[in-house]
Write a structure and sequence with these properties.
The complex is a heterodimer of chains A (224) and B (262). Chain A is an alpha/beta fold. Helix content of chain A is 30%, strand content 27%. Chain A has a six-stranded mixed sheet with strand order 6-7-8-3-9-10, sandwiched between helices. A four-stranded antiparallel sheet of chain A has the order 2-1-4-5, covered by helices on one side. With 262 residues, chain B is an all-alpha fold. Chain B has two domains: 1-61, no CATH class; 63-260, no CATH class. Chain B is globular and about 70 Å long. Classes of the chains: A alpha/beta (224), B mainly alpha (262). Chains A and B meet through helix 2, strand 6 and helix 5 of A and helix 6 of B.
Chain lengths: 224, 262
């Protein structure tokens, strides 16, 4: 579905991303590992077309995305940033906000669906009334994730979503992503998950890529 | 016929005596304000005398190219000043502030000279220079404040803006909050001054016209026109510099180029 073909990015003389090619197919669950500063975040940002690249191209379903369609592309290939930046309002308002964006017009906020998802995590709908100030790190990340998956993206690019969370919150994030992956079994979805946690790699990925000094290599391919 | 008391240099020196008194108080009380006070006073005297000499010359010549030339110099200085006060810089910031100052001030001043004050030669320095000067000074403030606010909130709200882009917002939707905040902040002082004009203080230009013997209602009419010119130039300039900066920092692929900041 999503292909990166020879993408490159330089800062002065230093390579940030060097000739990276990667394809993400329907149903795949990829993990990206590698030391800090190796280019994992930059690679995810490049895949979501959030950064300009110096060479190479991003293809979505075989085509280069025209400039006008980039917001539509990002609605399908959605990146969850490392640090959640939520507006200062209640969780329900935060979840409603994306529907005012042009690309999501025609979609509607489904309160019941959110409540069902919260229920599966053992949370009541009182969570929706919580204010952004009162959210813990884990709750902020859950809100960010709920905001993304309610928009039904096809690929989720997750940039260390659980790096600062305890094991309980991590479990919640993982099960939300798993529920989202299974929700549409005939339209296969995919994830790319940046993580440092080796146990998590086993839980959330079927193939592992290692990024080092802006270059990528296949580390491990398991049967799905 | 307009009448006023001609000032001699002796009378100006008497006014300077007030500053000397201030300086003495500062020395006695160790306020350490005497040096800045001295420098500021010296600059006021030298800068204004210099401008006076230039204006004497321009007023005597009354040629369109002389007025345009002086206007260009004033505009360039205003544009450069607007950019120099900004903390977050990016390549091309000078061009953007100069273009914004130029476009806003010249459009509005031209409207005043051609459409409002119809019965004059448009390049008559008596009207063209003070009008342009006042419009430039105020547009410069709006541009400087608008630009500063915009770049600052692009830096501080970076994560929110990128989150919005990642959710599928287009560049306009992602930056809209920061744009609105910047334009409002840039416009606020001008709006406030329109709110209180005449109640708290009399504007400098109106005071000058009253002293030179103009009937109060005439002076007031001039002042109203000036306020509207200033406000529209400030609005135009602020919107212009914010939009130029927006297009510099957001690509047509809806990417936020945070690396553009120096």
């Amino acid at each position: 579905m999503l292909e990166a073909v020879g993408i490159e990015r330089k800062a002065g003389n230093r390579w940030l991303l060097e000739n990276i090619s990667l394809s993400i197919h329907a149903g795949q669950r990829l993990a990206l590992i590698g030391p800090s500063g190796s280019g994992k975040t930059l690679l995810l940002r490049a895949l979501a077309m959030l950064d300009t690249i110096d060479a190479g191209e991003i293809r979505w379903r075989g085509n280069i995305v025209p400039a006008n369609d980039v917001p539509g592309f990002r609605a399908q290939v959605m990146l969850l940033p490392q640090r959640p930046a939520l507006p200062e309002t209640t969780v329900e308002e935060i979840l409603r906000q994306p529907f005012s964006l042009r690309v999501h017009r025609g979609k509607r906020f489904h309160r019941q669906r959110i409540i069902a998802l919260l229920d599966s995590l053992g949370r009541s709908d009182a969570f929706l009334a919580k204010h952004q100030h009162d959210l813990s790190g884990g709750e902020a990340q859950l809100t960010t994730l709920l905001r993304a998956i309610q928009l039904d993206p096809v690929i989720l690019l997750l940039d260390e979503p659980t790096a600062t969370l305890d094991s309980e919150a991590t479990g919640m994030v993982e099960s939300l992503v798993a529920a989202w992956l299974e929700r549409q079994p005939n339209e296969h979805r995919a994830t790319v998950w940046v993580t440092h946690d080796h146990e998590q790699i086993g839980r959330v990925s079927s193939a592992v890529f290692r990024v080092r000094d802006g270059m990528i290599s296949l580390e491990k391919l398991e049967k799905t | 016929m307009i009448e006023y008391v001609e000032l001699t240099y002796w009378q100006v020196a008497l006014a300077a005596l007030l500053i000397v008194i201030n300086g003495t108080i500062s020395v006695v009380l160790h306020l350490r304000m005497e040096k800045p006070l001295l420098i500021a006073s010296a600059r006021t005297i030298s800068q204004l005398l210099l401008v006076g000499l230039v204006l004497e010359w321009v007023f005597r010549w009354e040629r369109w190219y002389v007025v345009i030339g002086l206007g260009v110099v004033m505009t360039l200085i205003a544009g450069a000043t607007a950019a120099s006060g900004t903390e977050r810089r990016y390549p091309g910031i000078w061009i953007n502030t100069i273009v914004s100052v130029w476009a806003s001030a010249w459009i509005v001043t031209s409207f005043a000279l051609f459409a409002i004050l119809q019965d004059i030669q448009w390049y008559q320095p008596q009207y063209a220079i003070p009008l342009l000067g006042m419009v430039l000074g105020n547009a410069l403030n709006g541009i400087s404040v608008g630009l500063n606010t915009f770049t600052e909130s692009l830096v501080t709200r970076r994560e929110q803006i990128e989150s919005l882009l990642a959710l599928g917002a287009n560049r306009w939707e992602a930056a809209h909050g920061a744009i609105r905040h910047a334009v409002r902040t840039g416009m606020l002082p001008t709006i406030n001054s329109m709110m209180i004009v005449g109640i708290v203080s009399l504007p400098g230009m109106m005071t000058g016209q009253l002293i030179s013997g103009m009937p109060p209602i005439q002076a007031v009419k001039y002042q109203i026109v000036i306020m509207f010119l200033i406000t529209s130039a400030t609005a135009l300039g602020t919107v212009s510099v914010v939009l130029l900066t927006f297009f510099r920092l957001f690509t047509n692929q809806h990417q936020y180029r945070r690396e553009v900041f120096l």
